Amino acid sequence: MKKQNSLFARKPAKSPKSKASMDYPETLEIIGLSHEARGIAKHNGKTIFVTGALTGETVRYEISKKHRRFDEAECVEVITPSPNRVEPFCQYYGQCGGCDLQHLEHSEQIKAKESLVLDQLQRLGKFNPESTTPPLSGSDQEYRRSCRIGINQLMRDGTPIIGFRRRGSSKLLQVDNCPILINPINKILGKLKAVLSEADSCKEITHAELSMGDQQGAMTLRIKKPLPESLSSSLQKLAEDNEFRLYFDNGQQINAFGDEADLSYQLEKSETQIGFKPGDFIQVNASVNTQMINRAMDWLDLKDNDRVLDLFSGVGNFSLPLATKAGSVIGVEGVEDMVQRAQNNAKQAGLNNCEFYRADLSKDLKALPWYKQGFSKILIDPPRTGALEVIKQLEQHQCDQILYVSCNPSALARDGAELIRQGYKASKFCVMDMFPHTSHVESLVLFEK
Fold it and tell me: CDD domains, from UniProt (predicted)?
């Protein structure tokens, strides 16, 4: 294969010394990928993280930042390409900060993520899952059903900028179409600039949150003060012409401008509808979300005498499917509005064996009535910070199974080590390709007594 210029090549931030003066070689051999999707190289015992490089490649590079224990670099030319290197499909790749791995063949991305998680579990958590099951994955394009889009205005001429942050910068890159967004959101993205260009100013809008249910979507604009009626009406027309409804978020509350959206999604092979509101957390990848729920149901193998605790339950994404098989389900969530949404979803589904409570899951739960009742199985779906505080409190229950849904391998390693200390074994593991072409990786681990 011939030499290739790197898509990530750019002038590095001040590099005070040449590579020669630092006794650095002109090229580097890449021996692996970091959890941030950067190539890993070694020189004189020091690690160098190289953006845009892949395992097995020989690259030319420029040092961008120096640290005591490691250095950072930018790949400027690929001398010997990896056989798994591919041409990115997005015109903004390398400039936009959203994707990290479009230059790596998709199936190889999943393999790399699986290896990275297993490495962290062994290295940081000191445990290895007994079995690894096939990854969960779907389409690697047009998969994302929610996103945040930045909005700004050029000072020199007032031209609106609508897009995502540039790689390694807080500045926005104008993006007219994003291949990983589902088509209805892309339609809004492509037309929003034209609407804002007709206004005298759009400086009062900082960003837009776009989310799509099965039938309708919501376009929520974060505003610093109320917009002129004419601009609001134009934005409302844009939204409604594309099966969205317009909302404004003033930092205190989110209000619909006109009719509210009918936001919900139906889980495949199920009649269960999950309703949500703008601002609620939902899994962005509908296909992988369905596969994740199905695998959770399979691994937990629920019986009608099981009492299940669903921690960080949100709007009931796991709780409702679990309740169709278990005897009872208790969902616990930190956001009161989402607790109310989950209760409504259970009522609409005719599931009377669900109860939902609000609680701060970083605090002591032992005095709470629902906690004292005991559980046979527990599902934990925490944020990136993990769930160490609540896991330490679960020891008294000694339940049969704990299913951990992870979006942060290092938090999973730490929390998993605590469960191992409590006498559990990590019996099953898989990664989930919830965010193709990014460095983000989610995984499932089943802990059993």
Answer: AdoMet_MTases
